[in-house]
# Entry
Amino acid sequence: MQNKLTERLAELQKLLAVCPGDVLARCDLAILLEELDMPDEASFNWKAVLDFDPNHLKAREGVNRCRSRTRRPFQSQR
# Structure
């Protein structure tokens, strides 16, 4: 199972290197990073989604989940 997650992680990172504005791929990556217990990296990607769409509910929820896991307050980039 871990090998498939690692493969998917590499695929998503490769896709985002070519098309960094792909919101769906970035959401998938953030979810995968959460599953891999990497909340800092996941939060970075959720915040990138919010840069493209500040009202994206799934991304807002993701940021809150990651924040609760790292115990860091959310800091707006604006």
Notes: The mean pLDDT is 91. The helical segments are 2-18, 23-35, 39-52, 57-70. The radius of gyration is 12 Å. The chain has four helices and no strands.
